[in-house]
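Run log, item B.
One chain of 237 residues. Sequence copied directly from the ordering sheet:
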Amino acid sequence: MAKLSVNINKIATLRNSRGGNVPDLLKVATDVQKFGAQGVTIHPRPDERHIRYQDARDLVPVVYTEYNIEGNPARSFIDLVLETKPTQVTLVPDADDAITSNAGWDTIKHKSFLQEVIAEFQRNGIRTSIFVDPVVKMVEGAKETGADRIELYTEAFAHEYGLGNMQGIKPYSEAALVANDLLLGVNAGHDLSLDNIKFFKENVPGLLEVSIGHALIAESLYLGLENVINMYLQKLK
């Protein structure tokens, strides 16, 4: 069974839009784990427009499952990860002003930089994952950086699946097979939803973990958070 890590950025967005502490981010993190999620993901950005750096610190004693912190490894982000020591750090090459992540790393062009950052995290006992497009040479490049895992950027799959094109899964299946052969763990995330998650899981060999936030929170507005988490868990079996 692939693990479900719930990205709680949207909870922070809602809280920040009104000020105060409603909804309570720490309570939500506690509840998603109680409801069965096997991890909590956050993606702090430099402008702290949703998750704040202090949230990352405050979540340390709250997250008792897997704690995954995503972000672009600027020095401030690196220092935050080294301070909080999550289970996993996922390196994402998003620009400061990006609304959401929109591309994977060029693991060949940025090989030296990624090697340096990954080595620093691994010396501190933090599992590393690199956000990549489903391109075989980028998966092979990720292996050369010393990363423990890759996270497949799944927006293209989700788009094609929504159009009824089941062939959109092929690059992901092929990338996962290469990763398996290289002994790289495979995670995935971005635009995965209740509609497409079962098909994705069934066609991506060795899938270890998915990180889902926007769709899961939106679905929960209608169906309830506890119910939606358990629906995902059933589809990920």
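Observations after the first pass:
- The chain has a mean pLDDT of 96.
- Residues 111-123 form the longest helix (13 residues).
Flagged for discussion on Thursday.
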